[in-house]
Amino acid sequence: MVRVNIKTQYGLLPYDKKDVEHMEHPGCSATVYFLQPIEGFIYLKQFNRPLILRYHEAEDDPSFLHEVKILKMVAKLGHGPRLLAYDVSSRTQINEYCPNISWPGCSENPKPYFLAMRVLRSIHRKLPVLSKKYYHAPHGAIDSLYDELKDRGLPFQSMHQKIVQVMDMADQLLSAPARKVVMSHGDFHRGNILLLQDRTIKVIDWTDCRPRHAYFDIAQFTKKMSEEQQRLLLSEYLERDVTDRDWDHFNLVRCSLYCIVTLRRLSLAIKREGMGHSGEELERMVKEPSCRSRKVVTLEGDKKHLQVAAMVSYSRLLRVLETMSKIRQQEIVEVSSTGSAAGKF
Fold it and tell me: Is there a domain that residue 134 lies in?
């Protein structure tokens, strides 16, 4: 361990610091440390315990104060760890440490997963929308990713057509006045949802919290689950049975998410030494039956592994499109024949 002095509103406090993990997000990079109180030193009660130090590395990171504001509100709701101190100049946060346990499999024990949906519903209902500007899940991220990829011949033509199809449908269904716009967490997966020893839940890492459709968080949380499990959890969130229209909305949000994941993985592959496979090779790869059943364990591999991972997520997008209501797709295609999203690229 390394002895450090941590700046708080009560002065400098000494701790033993242990490196926990390094986390990377698009536009944000943060390092998390575990702080252990030093025996014999007198602390205030809230600091006399293990703590978490989170350090944002990007000097011009605009998300730091945004996350601080969100953290305070979520903690008041009882759904996040308390923010004990923060410093803007060093971009550091000190949060209470919440000892967590491993998540069971959803089939093995679905109770924590239902609890996560109830907590998410409470957050979506009670957290005020901080901006009147609706962050349309696919458009905001995809516009910038397209700029990075177009000089490399990506996305290839058939992928481009599918992404435009998804965005056209999303424009029609998700931009309606009755859309469910909430302060979406933006990275709602089990790694950011602490299952505590008392079987309660605390949600961490609010850097990507923006106004989005409510289903975006549910789609992220359930993206590796079966359709039956997804329907059950969506029903738990809605507190009622899932209608065909609910399921169409949910699948469109899932497609939007897969669009972002696919393009982001291709972008990461290019940044790590350039192209491993050509666009033509990737297009042939996604047509292979084995692509849809392939599992991606990690994204820390080489550029070819990242490109394979991108094709796996793209194949999942195609599978969701195939299973969507044919009637609903036809209705949307007829309404969106003007190609509103296509003009963006």
Answer: yes
